[in-house]
Structure formats: structure tokens, C-alpha cells
Design brief:
- The chain is mainly α.
- It is built from five helices and no strands.
- The chain is about 75% helix and about 0% strand.
- Helix 3 packs antiparallel against helix 4.
Length: about 150
């Protein structure tokens, strides 16, 4: 138990990010976020405004998660509690953004059931599923980051 508490009260760097509890989720977040980005970009972007928000969220979270991964891998956080706080806040923002984008994307997909071709409809369904998976991954990462932040 003491080893687990010690591990949660420090920020990993290098290859340790591939073995610690919240940080192992960076790669699945990148994979599923990238899939949402690719799938939404490959369909008809109608209506523009809601789909534009989904694209913004997927690209923003993909880029920020990649930068966060690089910072943690290089040890740029210097095991500071401020970085633990920033990690929690970033993942909380990502959860809120992805949840709003997922709901909007699901609504748009339901609305295009009769109007769109079957191919675009199926691509949008896949994008909705991956968007909710990305939301779940960011939520789990947010909870585990909050636990790490509180134990710092």
C-alpha cells in the first residue's frame, strides 16, 4: 500500500509514463481522439457549426494530449505539484469538451439517418462510438489525476 501511495504522489517521466496509473491512458486517448478526428473529417460536414465544434475538440485534445505526453516523457514537470494540478484541470476540461462534442455528434448523426447516404451514416456512428470511448478515457484519467493531485 505504501508503494502505491508513493507512486501516486510523484509525477512519472521517461518510460515510467507507460506504467503508471493515469499516464498509461495517454496513448489510448490519442488513438481514439485521432479516430474521431479522422472519421468526422471523412464525412459530409453538415451542419457546419456543430460538426465544426466536434472537429475543434478532437484536434485540440489530440494536440494538447500529445504535448502533455511529450512534457511528461521528457520530465519537464520536474515533479512539481503545480503540474499535478494542471494535469487534473486539463483532463477535466477535456472531459467537458468531449462530452459536449459527443452529445452534439450523436444528435447530428440521429438527424442524418434519413437524409444521408448509408456510408456517411455508418462513419458517423463509428465517430460517435469512438467519441464516447475517448470521453470515458479522459474521465478515468481525470479521476486518477485528481487522486494523484490530492495525494501530492
Amino acid at each position: 500500500m505504501a508503494a502505491a501511495t508513493q507512486q501516486m504522489s510523484s509525477l512519472p517521466s521517461g518510460f515510467r509514463i507507460c506504467t503508471t496509473a493515469p499516464d498509461i491512458l495517454y496513448l489510448p486517448e490519442l488513438v481514439f481522439g485521432g479516430l474521431v478526428w479522422i472519421l468526422v473529417a471523412s464525412t459530409l460536414i453538415t451542419p457546419n457549426n456543430p460538426q465544426g465544434w466536434v472537429m475543434f475538440v478532437s484536434v485540440f485534445c489530440f494536440v494538447m494530449t500529445f504535448l502533455w505526453l511529450i512534457i511528461f516523457a521528457c520530465g519537464g514537470h520536474k515533479n512539481s505539484s503545480a503540474w499535478a494540478t494542471a494535469d487534473f484541470i486539463y483532463h477535466l476540461i477535456a472531459v467537458i469538451f468531449y462530452l459536449s462534442a459527443s452529445v452534439i455528434l450523436a444528435n447530428v448523426t440521429i438527424g442524418m439517418k434519413d437524409a444521408a447516404s448509408l456510408k456517411y451514416y455508418q462513419i458517423d456512428i463509428a465517430a460517435v462510438v469512438f467519441s464516447y470511448i475517448a470521453t470515458l478515457l479522459y474521465f478515468i484519467h481525470c479521476i486518477l489525476s485528481a487522486v494523484r493531485w490530492k495525494s501530492f
